[in-house]
Specification:
The protein is an alpha+beta fold. The chain has a domain at 143-229. Helices cover 11% and strands 21% of the residues. The chain has a four-stranded antiparallel beta sheet, with no helix packed on it. A hairpin with a 2-residue loop joins strand 5 (161-167) and strand 6 (170-175). The relative contact order is 0.09.
Length: 230
């Protein structure tokens, strides 16, 4: 009987040790790997109800604050780190005392560093700048403007053209931007009269937004198309 009681006591003591061998149910051991052998098989939850953060990790030395690693495959819905705000406030915030907040590295550099379903403009993130040039600067270098003008000088259609008027043998076409440094081509719409010429009025002291198309004196006025490449 004595031997049976001793055996039962040993068994009772040893069963929890075996059952908890992977670390489940044990207290956190500071300064050690948790668990010391194997790995946990269940989720560890820390739940609180207060007006500030539930947990805090801080390193008073020169190292980092935390490392999170995982082995999720491509397309896995569970990333290594996820911040999920069940209400409408921010889900994350990064702050540093330095000049750069951080970086994003990917092994396959042909992929996008991140994706988003948001369509709004990011405050203080100027995506319209490239090498200190504004997007308008790049647009201006590839602008193709044109005007379709009637034989009497009336503006019929166009891109960037705002007005057109004929006086004598000259038709002045006005555009909504400076075209003094652009190239010009005027093509008669129909029979081409002798002496059809085009120049920027900005070169003669007139507004740099105007282009003048002239015909030789005495020729019949014709409709024309004016192309302006900037």
């Amino acid at each position: 009987m004595k031997a049976i009681l001793i055996s039962a006591l040993i068994l009772a003591i040893s069963i929890p040790a075996v059952a908890l061998g992977a670390g489940e149910g044990r207290s956190l051991i500071a300064g050690k790997r948790n668990p010391q052998g194997g790995s946990l098989t269940r989720e560890t939850q820390i739940i609180s109800r207060n007006g500030t953060y539930s947990t805090r990790q801080s390193n008073l030395g020169a190292g980092g604050g935390a490392i999170y690693g995982c082995r999720a495959d491509e397309g896995n819905r569970e990333p290594c780190v996820r911040a999920n705000n069940l209400r409408t406030g921010h889900a994350f915030q990064f702050e540093t005392g330095g000049k750069t907040a951080g970086d994003i590295k990917v092994k396959d550099t042909t992929g996008a560093p991140f994706t988003t379903n948001a369509t709004g403009k990011v405050e203080n993130l100027n995506a319209d700048k490239l090498d200190d040039k504004d997007s308008a600067d790049f647009a201006a270098t590839v602008d193709l403007l044109f005007a379709a003008v009637a034989d009497g000088g009336t503006l019929l259609a166009g891109k960037g053209a705002t007005a057109s008027v004929r006086a004598g043998d000259a038709t002045t076409v006005t555009f909504g931007r400076d075209v003094s440094k652009c190239s010009f081509t005027a093509t008669a719409n129909g029979a081409t009269p002798e002496g059809l010429a085009v120049q920027s009025a900005g070169a003669t002291g007139a507004p740099a937004t105007q282009v003048v198309v002239t015909q030789a004196t005495g020729t019949t006025a014709v409709a024309f198309h004016l192309q302006v490449i900037c």
